[in-house]
């Protein structure tokens, strides 16, 4: 009996040390599953081996900048950015949410699972739907900085992806009491043609969908709407 209990204890410890296995049956996007396979992700501990490819000054990055007006107060909008589920944020015609890695001790966040809010260290896998669905691309981002006081956040691309760089989102209050959201992206890839001719248009459509989704989730007296500012 004692021997049995010892074996069970060791088995449980081993499972805990190895981490939770990834349930690929709950990730519907084939390209996301493929990207995870290319990164040799089988259980939660494997995410520790993923590296960011963040923006660094003076290294030949291109810049894309967009500004959105959300007709709600900054506090409500910031709450939505921090707490809207990934499925809400990354769901639409051009993008879909695959899975999110939170912490080693916490379960992975799947599209049909609970979510406890945005935190530094989270890795988000999404799939882009391009050329009316003829081409699909999986992308992984990592949340590397959140400043609640300044209402800013930074997300980095991951190594082994199509692009390197960072995305910076910042909120400020307008004179009318609404919220101006600025989204700056610094990016580069192995193709200058892609960076100049292909990436900007696709990226703008995807992040416009993202910010519109977040705005829709704002619980506010007059439901938030977004406008792209010139």
**Helix/strand-derived class?**
alpha+beta
What is the CATH fold-level name? Alpha-D-Glucose-1,6-Bisphosphate, Chain A, domain 4
What is the total tally of β strands? 9
Number of domains: 1
What spatial order of strands do you see in the largest sheet?
Answer: 3-2-4-5-6-7-8-1-9
> What portion of the residues fall into strands of 2 or more residues?
25-35%
Q: Main beta sheet, described?
A: 9 strands, antiparallel
Shape: globular
Outline the low-pLDDT stretches: 1-18
User: What is the top-level CATH class?
Assistant: Alpha Beta
- Considering the protein shown, what is the CATH homologous superfamily? START domain
Average residue pLDDT: 88
* Order of helical and strand elements: HHEHHEEEEEEEHE
Separate helix tally: 5
Query: How far apart are the first and last residues' alpha carbons, in Å?
Result: 73 Å
Rg, please?
19 Å
What's this, in brief?
The protein has five helices and nine strands. It has 230 residues and is of the alpha+beta class.
Folded structure, characterized:
Helix content is 28%, strand content 30%. It has 230 residues and is α+β, with helices and mostly antiparallel strands. The chain has one domain: Alpha-D-Glucose-1,6-Bisphosphate, Chain A, domain 4, CATH 3.30.530.20. A 9-stranded antiparallel beta sheet has the order 3-2-4-5-6-7-8-1-9. The termini are far apart.
Provide the descriptors you would attach to this structure in a database record.
single chain; 230 residues; alpha+beta; Alpha-D-Glucose-1,6-Bisphosphate, Chain A, domain 4; 5 helices; 9 strands; globular
